[in-house]
Amino acid sequence: MKCSKCGFENKDNAKFCTKCGEKLDYETTTITQQATQGSGNSKNVIMLLVVIIVILIAVIGFFALNGHSNSVSSDDASAGSSSNAVDSSNKNSDQSSQDTSSESKSKSWELIGSYSGSGSGSKTVTVPAGKIKVELSSFPIKNYADNHLHVKGSNGASGGVDWGPTSDVETRSDSFEFTSSSSQTFTIDYYETVSWEVEFYRYQ
Questions:
Q1: What's the CA gap between 164 and 154, in Å, rounded?
Q2: What percentage of the chain carries pLDDT values higher than 70?
Q3: What is the C-alpha separation between 5 and 84, in angstroms, rounded?
Q4: 3-state SS, residue 183
Q5: Residue 188 to residues 55, 135, 139: CA-CA distances in angstroms?
Q6: What are phi and psi of 92, to 5 degrees?
Q7: What is the pLDDT of residue 176?
Q8: Which among 24, 118, 164, 172 is placed 20 to 30 Å from 39, CA to CA?
Q9: What is the model's pLDDT at position 18?
Q10: 98 φ, ψ to 5°?
Q11: What is the DSSP code string of 119-165?
Q12: Pairing of strands 158-163, 147-153
């Protein structure tokens, strides 16, 4: 039994300290000893946890660095092969774009005739041979049952817009295409219009 006053270690069954004569308190001494032992154990546990955490951080850092370096190496290798493929692809696409560009420059839709007017009536026009596109639009005076703009060719190609009695009074448009080996005659027929327009294009 350790004396709480002078610290002398007495026998377990001693009631007074052999060195200083202090009365020995079993309960207090036991609690103090347990607290001291517990404090020592806590320090040991904390130290052990710190060591384990440091080891884990070192292991994770090692694997992370190795994984990153392997990834960079594989990326460099694939980048090299990809660049070769891209160079080859770019050459092919450059060639094809040049071919497409030369074709697009050689042919396009060109306006060959434009007609417009208002009111009611009809008009006849001649359209040359080739690939032809017709675009038309009109705005009616009111929404009568027979407001219209019709364009019809001698080859049967036709298009147009009209409005019924319940239609909105608004601009309407239409278009159509055809290919002919000879010139064609077209009739433009319009009724009760504020304005109308018909344009003929040839692909050339």
A1: 27
A2: 74
A3: 88
A4: coil
A5: 91, 12, 15
A6: -65, -45
A7: 98
A8: 24
A9: 85
A10: -65, -40
A11: EEEEEEEEE-SEEEEEEEEEEESS--TTEEEEEEETTS-EEEEEE-T
A12: antiparallel
